[in-house]
């Protein structure tokens, strides 16, 4: 069931990519002056975290994309052209993600890219993707500014997941309306843009009282201080 869901998400992303790639390729109707011409095959690049800290996300995304590609190819491909996948590992590293994107665009001449799974990696890839006018769909990049920043739309960046602001809002409303929680303590990873984005949105939306905000850093091993602080806050509210 999980793999099927990933496949549906990936298929949606591929549909967006195919439309965007057709419009940005030479001869299309886009105002972009670049883009990769579609040849005998539709060349799709994966810029995913297949090893490293978030490899679990990257490999799950790859399985979903592979499933979608297989189904689309069996159904006749995109405008009669089969999808050819060029998969590369960005090793869960933002700098490597940018390098992989550049290689996929300039060396492999892909028509579109799927990746990456984290917002930080997508941000690092954006300049290369924009310069090459190659559309990208991120399955996991949730930062609001990926697709629009300072009132300007990033025309080559698409996403198939929810934004941080939406997720934080849903969590805040659920906490207040369904759990009937009047007071909460926010406890989140201060080294994660994803966690900070959701916490910010939660804080903005939540109807109750936020007693305190306690943070940790990815890689921390001793949580005793956090545990004592949280318990103290709870006791003070009784």
TrEMBL record:
Protein name listed in UniProt: Leucine-binding protein domain-containing protein
Species per Swiss-Prot/TrEMBL record: Pseudolactococcus plantarum
Residues of the signal peptide: 1-20
A GO biological-process term: amino acid transport
Coiled-coil stretches noted in the UniProt entry, renumbered to this chain: none
Keyword Signal appears in the UniProt entry: yes
Residue ranges annotated for the Leucine-binding protein domain, each copy included: 43-229
Entry-linked InterPro entries: BCAA_transport (IPR051010), Leu-bd (IPR028081), Leu_Ile_Val-bd (IPR000709), Peripla_BP_I (IPR028082)
Keyword annotations: Amino-acid transport, Signal, Transport
